[in-house]
Amino acid sequence: MKLFIVCLLGLFTVYCHAADTLDIDYIDKLYVREPQRAYRLLEPARKRLEREGWKHKSRMRYERVAGFVCLSNNLYADALRHALAMQQLGSKDRGNILDGLDIQCQLADKLGQYEQLARLVDQIRQETKKITDREPRERAIKAYYSLLCEYYKTRALSKSGQTDKAMQSWHEARAMLNLFADDPNENVRGNCAIMRHSFDLLLADIYIDGGEPNKAAAYIPDAVQELNREQQNGGDGATDHAGYDIHRMYFNLALGHALVKCGRKDEALKAAAGADSLFHKYPPMANALGSLLGIYVEANSIPQNILSLSEDFYRNNLATPSVELLSICNSLLQIYIRQGEKVKAEAMAGEVKRINDFIHREDMEFYDVLSENSSLRVSYYKQRGYKMVATGVATALVIIIVTMIYFHRRRLRDNQYLYKYVRLAVQQTPAKRADNPKTEENLQEQIETILSENGNFLSQDFNTGYLETRLQMKRYAIDQQLTEKCHTSLNDIVTNLRLQHACKLLEQTDYVLEYIATQSGFGTLRTFYRQFKKKYNLTPTEYRRLGQKKNQ
Q1: PROSITE patterns annotated for this entry (predicted)?
Q2: Measured between alpha carbons, how far is 451 from 440 in angstroms, rounded to an integer?
Q3: Is the domain of 331 the same as that of 405?
Q4: Residues in the chain with pLDDT < 70?
Q5: Cα angle vertex 208, ends 106, 101, to 5°?
Q6: Mapping DSSP to helix (H, G, I), strand (E, B) and coil, where does residue 246 land?
Q7: What is the rounded CA–CA span in Å between residue 77 and residue 70?
């Protein structure tokens, strides 16, 4: 009986450990297919691991998966935070440090920061040199990151316009790839197989970036033929059927761009159609839609399904501006101009400016600040043996504490005034609607009333069809009148209504902030925080805390 109980306890322990890893493993597989859903699962997974007690490996695995999930959702600052956390946690494991640097490289590549990418390549090279190759696992890691280092180095040179250096770097990387391909370590050979397809595609990009699309157009069909032969002969042992299809899709996209630049539009459209068929077969791949739309725009032949898909992508991703969204908006702007749709073109030009400003101001500047802070922290940890003079530390602490107390009290006083102002504004909104008649001159309040009738503004998939029917106006006409007469926009009205609803939930319930954000129509907690702070100069947490103090 005792033996039976011991066995049950052992099985229960194994089950609990499996449950501990299940959330992260599931998210790791999910984010490629459903990045937004994977992002929503991150916070519950973190709370679960935190509740059960962080283990070093669990924490490291969480930070790694969270970094790639945030990257796939275009949440650049969040991705960087997780990457920096990996570097700090992985000080004894070079593989973890290198994974963190890999995320930063992908982030720099997405943002077009090729100088930063070159600096990160040097860091990867230095960390790779510290890895010994005595164990098979260490040798596989060293081989993979040596190749990845050469890949990013070559890409940074190509995108910076240094075509000759990029070609030289590519040939050096290819020689290294061939050297590792004969390695007795199976994992090393598998990593070479994965990287070989990426280097083949990189050569096509070098030709196109260097102004030689004719060379790319001649090279890509041979590369695709070699890819097909390899798959027919049983594959490389590391790439599955879907992986081969995805490589073919990117080759077709590169071929389409090369051909259209050569003036061979019919062949370019044929290559784009091949990429399109594979694009619809698999989950959304990074930059695929923007690249596909770009081919059709250059060829001046846009299929209706691709145009509709691009417009849907634009509407669904307004809250998370990205480089791909900017590319799609630029293409849509060209399409509207060619079609003579002046209103749509003007609206899209404004969106292009907004997204471009967002990427270069908020994300890139924040990225630089965090990178700088990271360097300062690393420098601090390396030099922590040096002690500061005791009197200087004591003096600094006293000044900081006194300053913090002063500003804390001042902020509390200011926040109380802000809370009263916001609460009064939220309470007066219904009365204002009732007092003002629904006239043509009062379009903003008509819209607020219509949207409030059925709570349709609370849906994350908010659709303007119902509003257009009630007002008997098209969306662009509504936006035009709101801009001219009310100096606002439909998006601003919807956001304000959502924020008012969120204020009521913060006052009247104890729901967690993630749930309030979702119930108020915001796609992510980050968006909710940013909009709330921008509107009221208070965070949701501060607003709730002030409300609780008032009620006590």
Answers
A1: HTH_ARAC_FAMILY_1, HTH_ARAC_FAMILY_2
A2: 17
A3: no
A4: 1-22, 55-57, 90-95, 237-238, 282-285, 359-392, 402, 406-441, 550-552
A5: 15
A6: helix
A7: 9
